[in-house]
Design a protein that fits this description.
With about 170 residues, this protein is largely without helices or strands. It has one helix and no strands. The longest helix has 10 residues, at about 10-15. The N and C termini lie far apart (about 45 Å).
Length: about 170
């Protein structure tokens, strides 16, 4: 059984009914500004989806493919993004505060100006990720790969880089 491809109107109907979006194909559609708060969106295909300004607080995005999506200025406070794929995603000024992003893939993502306070980024692939000007206060980066990442102007207060690969990273 393949993923069901939904359009914006169908997504809004599912949300209004309080149902889960788990396993849905939401790729390459405009879902900007929608309130998904608290929704189960695990194992979703969100590649190249426009989620600018969307509310994704406390959303479960475990194992979802969010590669190349635009989540600029989106709110993902307390979201669960374990093992999610966010390669090449645009996350400028998004709020990930208190989220669980363990094992996430952020290869070459643009996360500049984002709020990542108290985020769990343990065992994450952060190679060549742009964290410039982001707030990582209290974030857990244990065993993460930050090779060639850009942390210029990022607030890393209380962050330990001891067990990270920081080869070529800019601080």
């Amino acid at each position: 059984l393949g993923m069901q491809k939904l359009n914006r109107a169908e997504v809004e109907m599912v949300l209004a009914s309080g149902s889960s979006l788990s396993g849905s194909d939401l790729s390459e559609i405009n879902l900007s500004g929608i309130d998904f708060s608290g929704t189960d969106m695990s194992s979703c295909d969100l590649r190249y989806t426009n989620l600018t300004g969307a509310l994704l607080d406390s959303v479960n995005l475990t194992n979802s493919n969010i590669g190349g999506a635009d989540l600029s200025s989106a709110s993902l406070r307390k979201a669960i993004l374990k093992n999610a794929d966010l390669r090449w995603a645009i996350l400028k000024n998004a709020d990930f505060s208190d989220s669980d992003m363990e094992g996430v893939g952020l290869l070459e993502a643009i996360i500049s100006g984002a709020k990542l306070q108290n985020v769990n980024l343990a065992d994450a692939d952060l190679r060549r990720t742009d964290f410039s000007g982001a707030s990582l206060v209290g974030a857990n980066l244990a065993d993460s790969n930050l090779a060639m990442a850009d942390l210029t102007g990022a607030n890393t207060e209380g962050v330990s880089f001891e067990t990270c690969n920081t080869y070529g990273a800019k601080f």
